[in-house]
Design goal:
Helix content: 40-55%
Low-confidence stretches: 1-7
Number of strands: 8
CATH topology of the largest domain: Jelly Rolls
Number of helices: 10
Radius of gyration: 21 Å
Strand order of the largest sheet: 1-7-2-5-8
Shape: globular
Number of domains: 2
Order of helices and strands: EEEEEEEHEHHHHHHHHH
CATH architecture of the largest domain: Sandwich
Distance between the termini: 48 Å
Length: 297
Amino acid sequence: MAARREVPRYRFDHPSPTSFPFRVLRQTRLSRRKTVWNEHAYFEIAFVHEGRGFLKTLDRKRRFRKGSLVWTNVAEPHRWFPDEAAVVTFLQFHRPFLAGLEPFLSDAPRHPELSLARFLAGESRGCAVHPLPPARLFPMGDLIDSLHREMEQRGDAFDTAVRAGFLKLWVEVHRALVWEKAGARRAPPAAGEHVQWALDHIQAHFTEPLDLAELASRTPWSADYFSRLFKRLTSYHLSEYVNEVRVREACRLLDAGAASVSDVALRVGYRHIPYFNRTFKSITGFSPTGYRKSEPN
């Protein structure tokens, strides 16, 4: 008797295991109060049907709106912050889904910086938001609907049809990136390096007093210009980013349950407890005590 062939299985965050490394979560409604920080072991492409807001990662805040494509890499901590309820379709896939597709997923000779392969290899940042031009919204919606139908019906050769549909979707993504690149504003030389240094410094020293003038003194620019540059490249005001980093660590400590709220505030860099409470609630929607008592989503 022939040995039984093992079928590879892939587990996404919520549903039961699946033997096909791709899924579509169609027309998911997001509410700010119900979103949480998360990271996952698969790649994700999200298409925003309705709404607007921010997608936050550890070092960036990116604005999204209706028609945006949002790319999230494997193991990239992120959280959606819609201004109101947003409607989003998620395409989620493990790396084996791309087997055999890699040669078609880049146009390196003409646009090396737009290569999906670089993103998948971790050479680009772990998250990106790209607004589609208005003329591409309906084609993108139709492609996502066709992928959803194939996954729902699972007819003959559905896996081939899904991969073919994904390649069509990539063509739309590529055209959107070319369009975005054509209209992108240029930053001063080395601006990205200095802003990245500031991000790394804040993450390493967020428990200490952090002063804009001191950070700017280590760059070629004045404090006022560096502040504008930081906002332009990250979408965060510098003080806002410091609070984000501190509150994220505070959430981790509150989840661990070992320290009081006042101890947590002091450990993450706040010396004024009422200010910590206000800042924590403005970012998470909960007071520190309410966050600790709340059930995980």
